[in-house]
Amino acid sequence: MKYEVVMGLETHAELNTVSKLFCGCSTKFGSEPNTQACPICLGLPGVLPVMNERAFEHSLKAAIALNCEIGRFASFDRKNYYYPDLPKNYQISQSYFNIGNNGYVDIVVKGKKKRIDIHNVHLEEEAGKLIHPEKSDDDYSLVDFNRAGVPLLEIVTEPDMRSIEEVESYMQILRNILLYIGVSDCKMQEGSLRFEASISLCEKGAKVYGNRVEIKNLNSMKAVLKVLAYEISRQGDLLDKGKEVLMETRLWDEVNAVSRRMRTKEEAHDYRYFPEPDLVPVWIDQKWIDETKKTIPELPVNKRQRFVKEYLISDYDAGVLTEDIFLADYFEACVKLARNSSKELSNWIINDVLRELNERKINIQEFTVTPKMLVELIKEKSTVGNAIAKEVFIEMVNTGKNAQSIINEKNLAQLSDVDELNTITANVIEKNPKAVEDYKRGKKNALAFLIGQTMKMTKGKANPKILTEILKEKITTGPK
Amino acid sequence: MLLHELTASKVRERITKREVTAQEVVEELLEWINLKEPLIKTYLCLDEDGALSKAKEIDEKLSNGNKVGLLAGVPIAIKDNMCTAGVKTTCASKILENFIPPYDAFVVKRIKDEDAIIIGKTNLDEFAMGSSTENSAFQITRNPWDIDCIPGGSSGGSAAAVSADMAFMALGSDTGGSVRQPASFCGDVGLKPTYGRVSRYGLIAFASSLDQIGPITKDVLDTALLLQVISGHDNFDSTCAALDVPNYISDIDRLDDVLKIGVPREFFGEGLNTEIKSALMDALKIYEANGAKLVDLSLPHCEYAVATYYIIATAEASSNLARYDGVRYGHRSRLSSDSNIVDMYSQTRAEGFGNEVKRRILLGNYALSTGYYEAYYLKASKVRNLIKNDFEDAFKKVDCIICPTCPTPAFKIGERVTEPLEMYLSDIYTIPANLAGIPGISIPCGFTSAGLPIGMQILGKYFDERKLLKMAKLFENETDFHLKRPKLNQQV
Amino acid sequence: MDIGLKEIEYIANLSRIALTDEEKKTFKKQLANILDYIKKLNELDTDTVEPMAYATDLKNVFRKEELTPSLSRQKILNLSPSNVNGFFKVPKVIE
Ligand SMILES: [Zn+2]
User: Fold this and answer.
1) What are B458's strand-pairing partners?
2) Contact status, residue A228 vs residue A197, Cβ threshold 8 Å
3) What residue ranges in chain C does DSSP mark as E strands?
4) Following CA atoms B54, B59, B61, B65 in sequence, which dihedral angle do they give, to the nearest 10 degrees?
């Protein structure tokens, strides 16, 4: 490609508090419209905001986890603009003294580490929801204020990202960090994690970038990636034709897979920020910062590196295991119980556990098979064999019972008893003289056939190793 | 003395001693109000039924021997910018003409808890923006001392009601002098507490960093009583101090130390009415005679107070009033509600707001808009700090400051409506206290030759309302200006 | 201080207040007058002065994270000029 691209991202994450930022209304998702609103979050005349302590603590925790500089104090400002989903027609946000400034997130693309700078992290209030009836002859919109006032964390990067892959990695790692520190549930389908992207292009080697295009209301990572790919090609085409890229705000049209210009005028963003007189500043001392630091767990990138080093698993596997802090915890709990078999455990978790979780659409915290149960099952594997172990696993997931009791109940224990196997194999040899002859003549396949026959008779429970030895011995030495 | 002529403390005493029932008090008061209201027009809404039923409730409590509150049976008027659950609260604006709040303001809850009786909601300049109550969308309130004059503003309805004995006491709000100035024009006692002394929850905001609710009463003791009830911490106002509330009533007549009174030069210079000046000089002599020391002072940045105020107050107001958009409550224009949302907003607000409110919203948005923020809002915030420092320096030398409340007595209705700036300048002596956040009280200290009341202002240190009240009480004990009532009060 | 008609129109739009031509003229004159008075502040050198953003010295005021009851939807919608199916209804908003 003949153009270079720079991209920046603003991420909005709803914080997972039970009550709103400035009032005690519930933040629960999916309730009937306007059932979670009160004089305060509706902006009735005379009401005042009082800051939810947990929301502030969550924001501070996020700012620290994102390596921000924490100022001596944070304060709040009013961002003034009219929109029907914004009850007071100003949003309480931060502009002059953010909770965090100048942070960074380390990302990894194609095995290479890169640092994405964070311009600032700040806390603000969520708007309500505007609904546009589908029918074109309806000349009205509807407003639901249930979301209005939910605490919202905004994380703004510098325009540091040079490729779609970098943006993707940044979004995944950022999401993981927020999940790890437990400040947001980052459910994109519920709108609790959203993005706004900015992008501009220039000729390779040019010093000045072209006009910046912003894209608002991106409700999933997929949408971000699609719209950026679309914009790179749209803007590239314009530049190819010698046309100018307009500085504007665009929206992503998911259905037609195109971006389009926003139709509402934005008054050139004259937000008239000024200090919110209804709130007081929050002073943050070193003690508070230190105490908050203690609550931040090992972050995904570090954990991934440690897993590779400590448990000798591949970087890819470590990546999968550390994508979810609870999954990583699960893995480590297993390793601790089992010692040594970390590679095998990692395979079990990545292949079998994750498959079952996905099929059942549950998360690891809700999983019936505890680390102890999984480790026990893997120990049993040496006696029941791999195929049976997998069956037992599924049964464990379904019933919540442990491996031992399933194996006993279903009589799945492997047949390793030599006497019993002697009797059965004698029977098999007697019934299949042709195969025995074939084997003796050097036809190796014949043995497999005989093993198969034995397995059939034992319903697969025969210990394959012992069985093979007995068969070989019987055939070569002849009937006793 | 007729019942309605009593002070709040006296009427409470008579009710609790069962010399009179609360119901009798309310009935007598309502009769007087109905007689005088057509002339003075203080009330936007009278809650006769609510008042009578509350009165019966209190009488019942008393006859059952139950404990009653500090304001038991006292009918109180509330400025119509404080929310009263189930009772219309209009801010004297068409935009809230039919607004019935679903909740009580903190102060309303407090006075209800102390068994006060809310008699009605009083007139004001729309959204408390004005100094004459002429900016009400609904009616013009007259000064009981001279019905051709304004009662002052913006708490003009409350001040006139108290002065005309149409309420035993009242609540006002003071952003740039809106309690003290009308109290001064109507011969009442009016106090603006320290910013943060009284919760603003439920006070419909004009300028959030300046607004404060305060009592307007017939004498100093009543102000102390009402301040006692409304002061204190509220979890719903982040700017409300969590400090203990001292007892304002006990020892109100005792001043132990020799006080140093600051007399700021700048408040006695050009533009001050000579009759007011001489009344103030006489008042200062009374303090001197009682052992106080007068200290000549300078508050050099106070001459910038009005300019500073009109930036900060309008900037905050432009944002505070953005919520009146016709979406969730209040007036919505019928003209354009089908076309598009921006037209709906603009028409709704054009129809709903009066000129003074529009002027201030425009000015405030101008001061905050791109390219002007530093030159106006930020500049004003810095000068505000200088003004605050003036007072902090002064209070290192003196215990309180005495100055006139206003440069002139009440002016004629219509006299200043066409010249906004001239109207703004009538708050020149009261605005500095709001900018600094310090408390101030206005008490009657004389009359002009035309018979209009003159107000004296005492300014104090942060949260030192107790000293202000003692100082005011001392003056009241030595004089009888507070006992004089408008002639109209006798014309039954 | 001169304030132009364009500026009046710009801030009227920011303020979401429809003005007639007559009103624009009146407000233009009055605002110019007030701004001229406010110019007085420029007499003061405030380069080294900190702005006073808050009227109190209070800091770190929080409420506990806990649920309190919301208002009933009926009460909320009763306040509104227009509503339908539990929603507030507004003229169509085009994004
Ligand atoms: Zn709420």
Assistant:
1) B402, B441
2) yes
3) 62-63, 83-84, 87-91
4) 170
Inter-chain CB pairs, A–C, below 8 Å = 131
**C79 located within any domain:** no
On whether residue B389 sits in a domain, the answer given is no
Tell me the per-residue pLDDT of B202-251, one tens digit each, with 9 for 90 and over: 999 999 999 999 999 999 999 999 999 999 999 999 999 999 999 999 99
Taking the C-alpha atoms of residue B90 and residue B79, their distance in angstroms, rounded to an integer, is 10
Chains in contact with C via at least 3 Cβ–Cβ pairs below 8 Å: A, B
Residue A480: the pLDDT is 43
What is the H or E stretch that residue A129 is in? strand A129-131
Q: How far apart are CA B129 and CA B139, in angstroms?
A: 15
Q: What is the pLDDT of residues A354-375, one digit of tens each?
A: 999 999 999 899 999 999 999 9
Annotated active-site residue B154? The verdict is yes
The residue type of B251 is: D
From A288, A315, A350, the end of a domain falls on: A288
C-alpha to C-alpha distance for B473 and B476, rounded to whole angstroms? 5
Boundary-marking domain end, from B299, B319, B353: B299
Can you read off the two tokens belonging to residue A80? Answer: 């003034």
The token duo for A216 is: 């608002």
Residue A87, min C-alpha distance to chain B (Å): 7
Alpha helices in C39-90 (DSSP H): 73-78
3-class SS of residue A66? coil
Number of domains in chain A: 3
- Work out how many domains chain C is built from and give that number: 1
CA B67 – CA B65 distance, rounded (Å) = 7
Based on the fold, state whether residues B326 and B467 are members of the same structural domain: no
Domain count along chain B: 3
Same domain membership, residue A98 and residue A170: yes
Instruction: Report the alpha-carbon distance of residue A366 to residue A344 in Å, rounded.
Output: 23
Q: Determine how β-strand B293-297 pairs with β-strand A140-144.
A: unpaired
How many beta-carbon contacts under 8 Å exist across A and B?
102
Q: CA–CA separation, A456 vs A435, rounded Å?
A: 16
Same domain for A377 and A466? no
Q: Say which residues have a Cβ less than 8 Å from residue B141's Cβ, sequence separation at least 6.
A: B40, B41, B42, B123, B133, B150, B151, B156, B157, B160
| Predicted confidence (pLDDT) per residue in A210-226, tens digit | 899 999 989 999 999 99
In a domain, C21, yes or no: yes
Q: At B155, list the tokens.
A: 């708490």
Q: Determine the distance in angstroms separating the CA of A251 from the nearest CA of chain C, rounded to an integer.
A: 9
- CATH of residue A436: 1.10.10.410
Domain coverage including residue A433: 418-477
Distance from CA of C14 to the nearest CA of A (A): 8
Q: Are residues A280 and A241 in the same domain?
A: yes
Q: Does A82 reach chain B within 8 Å, measured CB to CB?
A: yes
The DSSP code sequence of B394-447 is HHHH-SEEEEES-SSSPPBTTSSTT-HHHHHHTTTTTHHHHHHT--EEEEEEEE
Contact B437 C56 (CB under 8 A): yes
Which amino acid is residue A407, in one-letter code? I
Could you tell me the pTM of the whole model? Answer: 0.91
CB-CB under 8 Å, B238 with A50 = yes
Domain extent for C29: 5-42
| Domain containing residue C12: CATH number | 1.10.20.60
From CA A332, how far away is CA A349, in angstroms rounded?
A: 11
Q: Domain range holding B421?
A: 3-260+402-490
- Do B88 and B14 form a contact (C-beta atoms < 8 A)? no
CA B127 to centroid of ligand 1, rounded, Å: 24
The answer to whether residues B289 and B311 belong to one domain is no
Same domain, A180 and A315: no
pLDDT band at residue A2 under the 50/70/90 scheme: confident
The packing angle between helices B305-320 and B379-397, to 10°, is 130
Catalytic residue status for B381: no
User: Does residue B317 belong to any structural domain of this protein?
Assistant: yes
d(CA B241, CA B195): 9
